[in-house]
Amino acid sequence: MPRTDTRWDAELVPDARGRTVRPEPDCPVEVALAAVSGRWTTLVLRELMHGPASYGELRERLPEISPKVLAERLQTLGERELVARERLLGFPVRTSYRLTPTGEALRPLLVELYRTGVELLEHRSGAAAPPRAGNR
Amino acid sequence: MPRTDTRWDAELVPDARGRTVRPEPDCPVEVALAAVSGRWTTLVLRELMHGPASYGELRERLPEISPKVLAERLQTLGERELVARERLLGFPVRTSYRLTPTGEALRPLLVELYRTGVELLEHRSGAAAPPRAGNR
DNA sequence: CAGTATCCCTGTTGATACTG
DNA sequence: CAGTATCAACAGGGATACTG
Q: Span B60-74, mean pLDDT?
């Protein structure tokens, strides 16, 4: 039930889907957050942003992830159609995982997460306002 | 321990802090994610982005959040110096919460989360590539 | 190789009642 | 008003061993 007694910031909350009183799974912010949330998720996405990889390759690149969690992440990403699975014939079996176009759509978000994280770390360390590439 | 055998995408992983093999609390992506993660967190941030508010005002705007969780969120945000608390004198007691400049730094991230969420929802509904208002 | 199946353990959330 | 205290319920994550 949307509020009508307050002005909404049009940049922050452009439409009604963001004007919720409780966490709604179909609020865009929740949708995006769900896509990248969960331990190891952003690391798996990072690896796949570099190109397709097999299950075993992912384990090599992320040696400390457990098989269970990796499988779980890949399955969830698959259900959300962010990642596509392809079984390669031959022996031994290989499976190739790649980002779908929808998955690629997460790239700007990951970049923004990184940027924001850097900014928070700078504030934290008490650095003076640092120069931002060609602005300010 | 950073990988050296693969090329890193400079936009996605601009420096060594993002080249981790495991989730590191001081990786910028994790820092930013931690700032907005947790149920109700983005909603509290949204409210404070509209301006300072008291504990009770926040409860009015988010009627279903429990007092415990709201207090918890405000404390965590406070520890991270994203939110500042100010006790107002008088009776009854009032406390005003407001974003710090560091907290304001989360705004572009929230905007990007919303934008990405909308995009994911569009992909999900199988809509054709929609026009993007002359942006990015 | 590419996963499942178990089991355990911890952190998170929520409801509710109470206090300075 | 602005929280804290308590307790119950649950989901997420990890270690390990096993299978097609």
A: 98
Instruction: Please tell me the distance in Å from B79's CA to the nearest CA on chain A.
Output: 11
Alpha helices in chain A (DSSP H): 28-36, 41-49, 55-61, 67-79, 101-104, 107-124
CATH of the domain at B31: 1.10.10.10
User: Is A88 inside any structural domain?
Assistant: yes
| Boundaries of domain holding B72 | 19-125
- Spatial distance between the Cα atoms of A82 and A77, rounded to a whole number of angstroms: 5
Q: What is the pTM (predicted TM-score) of this model?
A: 0.93
Per-block average pLDDT, block size 10, for chain A (136 residues)?
Answer: 71 97 98 98 98 98 98 98 95 95 98 98 81 52
The structural domain count of chain A equals 1
Do the domain assignments include residue B7?
A: no
A21 contact residues in B (CB cutoff 8 A): 43, 61-64
